## 1
Amino acid sequence: MDIQGVLTTKVKEAVNSIFHIKLESVEFQPTRKDFEGDITVVIFPLLKVIKGNPQVIGEQIGDYLVENVEEINRFNVIKGFLNLVIDDSFYINFFNSIKSDESYGLLTPDPKSKAIMVEYSSPNTNKPLHLGHIRNNLLGYSVSEILKAAGRKVYKTQIINDRGIHICKSMVAYQKFGKGETPELAGIKGDKLVGNYYVKFDKTYKSEIETLVAEGIEKKEAEQSAPILLEAQEMLRKWEAGDEEVVSLWKTMNQWVYDGFETTYKNLGVDFDYLYYESNTYLLGKDVVAEGLKRGVFIQKDDGSVWCDLTDEGLDEKIVLRSDGTAVYMTQDIGTAIQRVKDHPDVGGMVYTVGNEQDYHFKVLFLILKKLGYDWADNLYHLSYGMVDLPSGKMKSREGTVVDADDLMLEMTQTAREISEELGKLEGYTKTEKKELHKMIGLGALKYYILKVDPKKRILFNPEESVDFAGNTGPFIQYTYARIQSILRKADFDYSTIISAEGYQLHQKEKELLKQVQLFPEVIQNAAENYSPAFIANYTYDLTKEFNSFYQSIPILGVEDNIQKIFRVQLSKKVGDVIALSFRFLGIEVPERM
RNA sequence: GGUCGCGUAGCUCAGCUGGAUAGAGCAUCUGCCUUCUAAGCAGACGGUCCCACGUUCGAAUCGUGGCGCGAUCACCA
């Protein structure tokens, strides 16, 4: 069925029979729209082994192919390009083979193959989620779905950074100013409440520094000796010592945050299979480091600190344990990775969705795990993505210059409602249905906006200019899907008949659409190999554009010929299916109407 | 300074395992709703693909050297 495979063989055969030369490979590309043809053989590379004029060589191969390959009708040669015209029957047969296949494009997982664990989100528990987390979440979730579609077994996970000085800051501020406030009493989400105290801490801290400086103390000194900071440090010591009061407050406030996060995740449509808490895993890496030291993977310095020498790899030495024996960030990540494989022995690789400011950290982490000799260490991937910046610069929670995740989702939904109401196409929909639809569209716009760009690229997000709903956007694709569903609702006849390739002549628009549908499985594989939802987004856009052109150029339900009508409805349905599937990989829902 | 990433139309981005005249959307301007949803379609306008050199029949794509932007080079996480 794979035309390229067939052609490769046949072109080799042709070259062998005409020139008596064995070819290694043949280069194909889709024919440019300005020329007649569907697939093109590039002749230039052949000139290295075949002496002669590319025009003549092309024609000779073309003649042979028309003679010997059933699917090829005719050809033309322009410069060094051999354009082949494929017979309609090939496309129709292809379509018949996939039209009822609901898992078209998907690979079923090999039960023996190893699972892959995808980590994403991994927030601190002292402030609400913001736009940066949204990018992280969408990427991690989407890549998980894409990997599944490509036949991988996937576990979604996150590590929750629930310990450390940053948590204590919120806790201290709450103790000082909280007066027993709770999310219920304040009527706000728990993560927002805790976030407020984090900001409050920072304000107090800054004013204390000012006071100290006014009293004539050096700024650096003041920064280190501000009373509220000392209190936070004291609290961290108490926490590590298991102080009951502190631990109890920690538990209460963390729970508020988890509840708040849960709401945000639910709205965003992401979820996790397994959770890891830093408070449970931060000590794990120490044993591994001790063992690695024994085996000579690490070296110990005079002060007792332990290091990994990576100078052979062109990097520096990296600390894995402090001189006082406590764990650093790296220690914890080593431990967590190993723990995950212990918990889930079928895991054979991991994907870490973390911003690109940590490129170096993960490079080192992966090297260390490899040095420690874990076989899965070859299958680690850092899904590194660029920051989301505002026109005013970086987002900083402490300074309140963030785009809050909940607020943004709400705004997108409201914009969707305004547009939708203006167009007024939802007659007969209940309030609830409309509300759901507006959310679907608003989030569709947001998710597509973020996922369509290459993860590596930095995104500049301007809250003043709202995310578009027209053009290359989520709603555009959702709209096309709704159009297709409308056609299917109106097609009140049996369109399940298989259209015979015999005697059916494809309209140009039908053919272009079929070619686009044909690309789908390959796109999924590419997206999975590159860990890039952007591949899926861009493909879906191309497919959608092609469909809209088809839709506006030729009648579907209105066409005279019954066979044509059935075929076009079938084709429309298939395009709708592919759109829905693609969007599912992006975590975007598609509407019946809009 | 070393390392990594990015640099394509006024703006946002595709294209990057080398191929024909570099593609979309937004914005600006023209047409198209008494036929299947106009959140649409068709068209116009808009380009030193950051610069230079090199490899090649052929370079936005590969290599080297620059320039610009960002990140990173903590006994912070």
## 2
Amino acid sequence: MEKKREVTIYDIAKELNVSPSTVSRALKDHHSIGKKTKKAVLKLAEERGYQPNVIAASLRSNRTNTIGVITPWINRPFISSLISGVEMTANKQGYNVIISQSHDSYENEVANAKALYGSRIEGLIVSLAMESTNYDHFQKFLKKNIPVVFVDRVPDDINTTKVVINNYEAGFKATQHLIEQGCTRIAHIGGVRHRNVYKERMDGYVAALRQYDLTIDDNLIIESDRLSSEEGFRIAKYLLNLPERPDGIFSANDTAAVSLIKYAKSVGVDIPNDVAVIGFNNDPISTIIDPPLSTIIHPAIEMGKLAATQVLNREDQTDIVKSQTIMLDTELIVRESSRRVVIPKESITKA
Amino acid sequence: MEKKREVTIYDIAKELNVSPSTVSRALKDHHSIGKKTKKAVLKLAEERGYQPNVIAASLRSNRTNTIGVITPWINRPFISSLISGVEMTANKQGYNVIISQSHDSYENEVANAKALYGSRIEGLIVSLAMESTNYDHFQKFLKKNIPVVFVDRVPDDINTTKVVINNYEAGFKATQHLIEQGCTRIAHIGGVRHRNVYKERMDGYVAALRQYDLTIDDNLIIESDRLSSEEGFRIAKYLLNLPERPDGIFSANDTAAVSLIKYAKSVGVDIPNDVAVIGFNNDPISTIIDPPLSTIIHPAIEMGKLAATQVLNREDQTDIVKSQTIMLDTELIVRESSRRVVIPKESITKA
DNA sequence: TAAAGCTACGCAATCGATTGTGTTATCAAT
DNA sequence: ATTGATAACACAATCGATTGCGTAGCTTTA
């Protein structure tokens, strides 16, 4: 099988008796090329099925038209939606998106960053691994002025652009909602504290309790490093069997909240009347569980689009604005898992 | 801000008073380079933080170490898991993965294929858009001997490697299971017929009915082009209000099945005793719905890994085996949505 | 009519790594 | 001491596209 050589600008140049540079310029619609020549080049290029060699162009121009993405996993509702958003705007602007996953491991994250750096990506979008507390592996991008945008799970001590949701406010709203439903003993199922999203949701939770003069009971604040379905069951078992059972639970994700509801049902605890529950993320499962789970909406696709926009627009820009945090609002979705028939006390004022 | 030039083999060569070719060979552990020279080169490369320019190497060697993926969407449980699998094996072999989504549109699929072709990918993994019935846009890959592997939603008239599940058998098993539970009037919620997966699931369904001498009623066979949640409701409404209501329903995906169950519950139809239901995919929601949904397991991550393996191993291989279909087995998961207490009639023999 | 200004294009270097083809030492063998 | 073999490296072309600079030819202007 003979290798069919690709058509190059040289082939076209030779055939038209012009120079390769003329062909190159004609193809790029350069002003200094005559109309006739331009037309002839375009025509022949079309005929010969000319495909520009982006690799060669990349080498010369030092641009790859590619951005990279590092996320913990890609097969999770929130993250896959986020990546979907990234792909949409990148695609629209003619950029490729290279993905990689850290599996929540620091080592993988470092390895992925290194690989992407080697691939000469022009921008990087990262949602941090659960494990990561050191962020040096991103410095080489910044030093080379390659924009790095963090999304959702972001570091706090690095000077760059971040796209996040207002986790604090969301945590506050969720908790406040439970309070307004008459809950007074509210537990929180949270993630690891060193990860901004979980810390802030908890902070919001604590702040709400404070604002409404409710006691903060450390026994009701759980820190889980997984927030998986299994963890959800384990935690549910613990919380619902406490001597003084909580009457409201704010979970930092839907997965754990759903497991908790399932467990509650299995032991005859009434949701929402015995215990009101609210989750986080608005995963598909939240609408399926019975009773449907109240939750917080994450604008995942939007976040992806925004992150991509940030990365792409940061390019060849002066570094006046080095750091920036874009904070998106969330929305509280009240469903049956937390909607009580009881009228909240009048003493409670809306914030 | 001064542009820091990257360290090249020329820099290293100059500093060591050797030629760039020697540096290149030393870095690649070529045999014709002396130990001392090799060591010196490696040492200096390390010191200077040399990063090989993959673009330049690509241009010369005509290899990009990149594969492309085109899927309808990426934010769907099955597909994101599939991509996750692709990424894992590609990453392990040092390949990048560029993703793109067709949004189930033929036009997008064509555009994506074109873009990826331009990006000089070395392999392509595709799950077809719902719309696509023409596959010419993949021919240019095949002509250039770039491996194309189709996954799950595959064309039937193209000569290349495919990774699929045994949809026919799965459809058969699902239907047979309903029959064994005593259902005699079984409906099927299917997808568009021109898409292999849906056609085959339906074929399996029909075959099972035939084998057990049940009548095939066209009114009970629905073709939906979305199989969305909304469609599920619409179809549920239709099916459950038929004069002769079906007593079993096999849905080609979980989304529609779950909607159907929800609707059934809302109108007081007992699942599984009035109507037994089975879905397809084992989406997370299938375990959350009450009663839990029986379904068919798709080995999504495995399929992704396999597809990637196929693509990567097909390279620089002679084209002896041009076409190959790898068919994976599925598993029937019986949950409460289809488990009846009734003993199936003795007349029913297992296949 | 000569100087100045365009128009339309060609030349050749460049981006870095790779690789086929030399070219020198060095050493063993006769 | 001469030859052939081998080790260790250098040269230079190559992969295609891009681009700063240069120039021939034609037009315009004083």
